[in-house]
Amino acid sequence: MKYSLLLFPFILFLACKSPAPTDSTAKSKINHGDNTSVIAFGSCADEDNTHLMWRYIIANQPDLWIWLGDIIYGDSDDPIKLRNDYAELNNKAEYQKLKAACPTIGTWDDHDYGINNGGKEWQIKEEAQQELVDFFGAPAEDPRRQREGVYHSYTLGEANKKVKVILLDCRYFRDSSVIGADRQYILNETGTILGEAQWQWLENELTNSDAQVHIIGSGIQVIAEDHRFEKWANFPNERKRLFDLLEKIKPAHPIIISGDRHLAELSKIDVGGQPVYDITSSGITHSYEKVNQNGEVNRHRVSDHLTGYKNFGLILIDWNKSPIEIRTEVKGIENQIWFSEVLK
């Protein structure tokens, strides 16, 4: 969809009516026609690696780029180290071209949080939060500068062509997550991922939305439950609470996007008679190529939609169709399409 980016701060805005981050004032002309929106997303971009993917992402003319965590691989309790790593990424010429082409927003996962697999116990989480919002150029009145956690929401578009993007913080409030002797996570049946304040915020964001499409971003996978790595299924009560909330509110066209895994796949689950998808895109600079040969069990995977090659994700919304058509594509180097699916 063509948006006048001179007016974009009035179209893309933070919940609580806060101004858009400064990099949403990027100047370029993007034209997919008046009836198509293109939203790009991905995760896992080691600042020390070669960044080839941005040129291919830009070639798709996205209206918006969403980070799903591991923006950098800071892994440090020194905020200055995190700041310098963000600066290294931000100074890359190809990434600057992306910022000039479209607004960039996002949330974090563990490596930009500062500690692998970290949760609420992380001793510099407050400082790490400020480094992240500084990276996005958030103004002083941005809610993320005032409250705990980096969760936030944006609305893109207007009238009957609105997309609401809700980005969750799965680190700041998360309770303990312990790996057992068999290298499997021990289920935390009573712990939280989001924390109560964020849960109440999420319910309010969904309840009071008039958007036609809802994109919920999570650093870790929500639907997949068979692999042994980090996922919402390690906190089964939290995962059920999320699905119960979606069933209760029934937001229009709920789509989950996630990162973390160094692979891409499409998962689907039925929630109260409504299909909910989780599109995982992870591996901008590095990925888990062995999964292409060895595979990985996921009882919720749609078809054979799995790749371990470097990738980024797209959501394409055709507003001209009735009902609207939403397609996801996962692409790689040279814009190779790893998989594509119309979300029913």
Report on the structure:
- The protein has 9 helices and 16 strands.
- The chain is of the alpha/beta class and 344 residues long.
- The strands form 3 sheets. The protein has an 8-stranded mixed beta sheet with strand order 1-5-6-9-10-12-11-13. The protein has a 6-stranded mixed beta sheet with strand order 4-3-2-14-15-16, with no helix packed on it.
- Helix 2 packs parallel to helix 4 (93-101) and helix 3 (79-90) runs parallel beside helix 6.
- The longest helix is centred in the last third of the chain and has 14 residues, at 236-249.
- Mean pLDDT is 91; it is low at 2-31.
End-to-end gap: 21 Å
* Binned strand content: 15-25%
User: How would a textbook summarize the main sheet?
Assistant: 8 strands, mixed
Number of E strands: 16
CATH architecture assignment name = 4-Layer Sandwich
Mean pLDDT over all positions: 91
pLDDT < 50 stretches: 2-31
Q: Taking strands numbered 1, 2, ... along the chain, how are they ordered across the largest sheet?
A: 1-5-6-9-10-12-11-13
CATH superfamily: Alkaline phosphatase D (PhoD)
Structural class: alpha/beta
The 3D shape can be described as globular
Task: Fill in the keyword field for this structure.
Purple Acid Phosphatase, chain A, domain 2, eight-stranded mixed beta sheet, 9 helices
Describe how the helices and strands are arranged.
Layout: H1 8-11, E1 13-14, E2 36-42, H2 53-59, E3 64-68, H3 79-90, H4 93-101, E4 104-107, H5 110-113, H6 125-135, E5 152-156, E6 163-167, E7 178-179, E8 185-186, H7 196-207, E9 213-218, H8 236-249, E10 254-258, E11 264-271, E12 274-280, H9 291-294, E13 301-307, E14 312-318, E15 325-331, E16 337-342
Parallel strand pairs: 2-3, 3-4, 6-9, 9-10, 10-12
Antiparallel strand pairs: 1-5, 2-14, 5-6, 7-8, 11-12, 11-13, 14-15, 15-16
Helix pairs in contact: 2-4, 3-6
